[in-house]
Amino acid sequence: MINLETPRKFRAFVNQAHQVAAEMLRPNSRRYDLAEHEYPVELDMLAAMVDGLGASGTGSGAGASGVRRTAAAEDGVVNGSNLSSVLSIMEMCWGDVGLLLSMPRQGLGNSAIASVASDEQLQRFDGVWAAMAITEPGCGSDSASIQTTARLDGDAYVLDGEKIFVTAGGRCDAVVVWATLDKSLGRAAIKSFVVMKDTPGMTVERLEHKLGIRASDTATIRFDNCRVPVENLLGSADIDKGFAGVMQTFDNTRPLVAAMAVGCARASMELTRELLTEAGVQIDYDRPVHLQSAAAATYLAMEADWEAAYLLTLQAAWMADNGQPNSLQASMAKAKAGRTANDITLRCVELTGPLGYSEHHLLEKWSRDSKILDIFEGTQQIQQLIVARRLLGKTSAELK
Q1: Reduced to 3 states, what is the DSSP secondary structure of residue 4?
Q2: Strands 130-133, 174-180: parallel, antiparallel or unpaired by DSSP?
Q3: Fewest 10 Å CB contacts: which of 17, 55, 216, 281?
Q4: Domain spans of the chain, in order of start
Q5: Does domain 8-124 have CATH number 1.10.540?
Q6: Percentage helix, strand, coil, to 5, in the chain?
Q7: Residues 262-303 pLDDT 10s
């Protein structure tokens, strides 16, 4: 049975994550929001500290790189790297989402490697900062439409194509690229490849200017006759094994994005409550909602939504730690948390009026940052489609 309290072995680590968010991330939040594409140098020291915690065994899975599915324990439940990662990410994104996404060696590509790489690949790519490249100019949510190709040529795969909206694509050491071995086979032929940044034929074309998460760079990357060693293919090269290995990445990364949304929403709610209290608005948990002010009633509704998103996120991570299939729960957590963060952060701006809309507080920034959390790693609509397929027992061909 899942225990809703933070596991004792993670409490010190989660408290450390909160201290980092409060003392390092949030104080620099506005600076790097205004200085888009400027690298946050403060993160180098933080990344070194996280690496040290991981090497000492006390890190308990810090950030995306800590995520890996493990078998369930025979004598009970496991509280492992998936749960510790979502708990720490919630705290860090209470500080700043964009700065978390800018942390070296904590990219979503690292989670992809952790999810499906062999033990040899895990050791070889240890310490590498990996971004993940899926989206293309003509392919967003429909992964079967991926046009980037991977052609086997001797001891290497030759990649050709273009990827857009690659988070940390300009700063990372490597990119996990989704490409197809045969376009006619659809999803079954899609594999992921680790491409190092110094590989000839790989070019960062441009960095995007964005609504939110401005501290994080988002790149367009082109591959032109880019030769990648065969040993850099993640998982099996066997087409008969299909798309499942690649998609397992999402089962682990979607709870991470949900955790980002939960942390960002919590930051907005806490500051909004402080501002409402200063304005004389009382939120009374012992009185019926209809007997309270509209602002208090709205806040209570936000809290209920946030709690649901929080619990779904914990469930998805806990199931991964215990070797249970969690594709349904990962999509439910991502859908609920992403949309909840959007709703909460915008309502907080509304509730606080000019204070929320101005740059005097971070509320307007959090509302901008939250929007991406409902989009990347699968949009709201895609998550709902996945949930419907799982609940109805339909395949992707039967329910589009």
Answers
A1: coil
A2: parallel
A3: 55
A4: 8-124, 130-241, 244-392
A5: yes
A6: 55, 15, 30
A7: 999 999 999 999 999 999 999 999 999 999 999 999 999 999
Q: What is the mean pLDDT of each run of 10 residues along the chain (400 residues)?
A: 77 92 97 96 86 56 50 64 92 97 88 87 93 92 86 97 97 96 88 96 97 97 98 83 67 93 98 97 94 97 97 94 92 98 98 96 98 94 95 91
Q: What single DSSP character describes residue 233?
A: E
How would you label 355-389 residue by residue, b for 16+ Cβ within 10 Å and e otherwise? bbeeeebbbbbbbbbbbbbbbbbbbeebbebbbeb
User: At the top level of CATH, which class does the domain 244-392 belong to?
Assistant: mainly alpha
Report CA Rg, the chain: 21
Please indicate whether residue 377 is annotated as part of the active site. yes
Q: Is the pTM of this model over 0.70?
A: yes
CATH classification (class only), 130-241: mainly beta
Q: What is the DSSP string of 13-28?
A: HHHHHHHHIIIIIHHH
Compute the distance between CA of residue 93 and CA of residue 345 in angstroms, rounded to an integer. Answer: 13
Q: What are phi and psi of 14, to 5 degrees?
A: -65, -40
Q: Are 226 and 199 in contact (CB under 8 A)?
A: yes
Tokens of 258: 């949900």
Q: H or E stretch including 338? A: helix 327-352
Report DSSP letters for 299-315, one per residue.
Answer: HHHHHHHHHHHHHHHHH
String of DSSP letters for 82-115: HHHHHHHHHHHHHH-HHHHHTSTT-SHHHHHHHH
Q: Could you tell me if 260 and 108 are in contact, meaning their C-beta atoms sit under 8 angstroms apart?
A: no
With H, G, I as helix, E, B as strand and everything else as coil, classify residue 224. strand
Cβ-contact 319, 352 below 8 angstroms: no
Of 94, 181, 100, nearest in space to 146 by CA: 181
Cα–Cα dist 364/296, whole Å: 20
Among 344, 340, 327, CA closest to 380: 340
Question: DSSP letters along 139-207, please?
Answer: BSS-GGG---EEEEETTEEEEEEEEEEEETTTT-SEEEEEEES-GGGGGGGEEEEEEETT-TTEEEEEE
What pLDDT does 345 receive? 98
